[in-house]
């Protein structure tokens, strides 16, 4: 549970970093980044698998490149729902989602060996 909270905090920081590095993504503050990171995570966990199955033929035809479009759609959808998190266009969502995904991979690899509590 503590690892999940730490990942959420780090994902919010990654979203702030994306907004700092790329002007197409704007985050008004840390609170908005926390909500946006939570909502993006929920969309990725609940909606993206369904969309992936529905768009599997297109994904196969594009040799997996359509998966970037799905990630951008989740990123762009979150910006439409969360106040304080704004993505300028779908192209900005595409680049922002790629940067955010890179940060997510770094966070996941950093937290891979982290263990909270007593070791067994």
From TrEMBL:
UniProt keyword list: Membrane, Transmembrane, Transmembrane helix
The keyword Transmembrane helix is assigned to this record: yes
Transmembrane domains' residue ranges: 54-78, 90-111
Keyword Transmembrane helix appears in the UniProt entry: yes
Protein's name in the database: Phage holin family protein
């Amino acid at each position: 549970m503590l690892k999940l909270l730490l990942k959420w905090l780090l994902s919010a920081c990654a979203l702030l970093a994306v907004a700092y590095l790329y002007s197409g993504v704007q985050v008004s503050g840390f609170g908005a980044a926390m909500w946006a990171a939570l909502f993006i995570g929920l969309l990725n966990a609940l909606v993206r698998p369904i969309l992936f199955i529905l768009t599997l033929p297109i994904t196969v035809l594009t040799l997996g490149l359509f998966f970037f479009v799905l990630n951008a759609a989740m990123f762009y959808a979150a910006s439409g729902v969360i106040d304080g998190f704004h993505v300028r266009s779908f192209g900005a969502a595409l680049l922002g989602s790629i940067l955010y995904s890179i940060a997510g991979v770094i966070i996941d690899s950093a937290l891979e060996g982290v263990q909270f509590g007593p070791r067994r």
